[in-house]
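Predict the 3D structure for this chain.
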Amino acid sequence: MSKSKRLFIGLLLLTGLLYACSGVNRLKRIKKFGSNPGNLKMFVHVPKNLPDTGTYPLVLALHGCSQNARRLARQTGWNKLAEKHHFIMVYPQQRRFNNPSKCFNWFRLKDNDSISGEAASINSMANYSLKHFPVDSTKVFTYGLSAGAAMSVSVMANFPETFNAGAVFAGAPYGMASNIWKASGVMFRPTVREAEAWGTLITSKHDESTEYPRLIVVHGLRDKIVNIQSSRELVKQWSFLHKTDEYPFKTLYAFENNPLVYKLFYYNAEGQNPIIFYMILKTGHEITVNPGKGDKKGGRRGFFSSDKDFFSTYYIAKDFGIIP
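Done. Predicted structure below.
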């Protein structure tokens, strides 16, 4: 290898190291955050410039299979937005001991109830944050990719009182699978049910007065790992919870002048919009990013992320209502 090539590779490695170690991507581990029946790790990012007065939104971001908290933080650009717009990030992280592929176990019954497993651990992280950070309890959100997305649905289904809204990237409805074998099958051929059949899997766990989190769904039309029908079934499930039609009331084609992005809106009888569905054309099983500087640019290309000129994290944060 030539000297100039070695120098170039060294500069690339140094640049990556500096980026990974920069304040905006540095995460702090919280080892003791309360009840942890799912045996997960907790990492946080609290902006350095957070004013001492007031309370702020909280976002819990769940990684996909083979990922970890730091990689998700780098690729999604959540911390950059948190620094600028003043909110707190929590990143639950799976342990290889729990799942060799580091997937959240969204399909195991014991990990998907309010007491025994990973969903309960993630809710404990939210409760810890409410006690130890200046968090606005009415502005707690969850976000997830793939297995992390399906686990985000589980957390919202079990703890609707904790979360205001959740964003689900290529996820699944609550109750779609009960073991790893069924999970592997339904990713390719999702179970199809009526909205009520899906919805009662959640409403049966709560009383009639329960208010459920808003839902934001994102899915690539070329996803060959999780069939987009899985997201359509998820929309049906939450349309029952929010009493909306299971078909969109309005669709914005070429959203933000991007021909790849369709934004679908689902309204209830009160004129509220509790469900949003982003369909991304020419996109597989990945987060969409738009690297660069500026309000609508961010995120990094990598494994499970691609540049589609659409910084999805930014628009999700806007839909959450935590940035103007």
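The radius of gyration is 19 Å.
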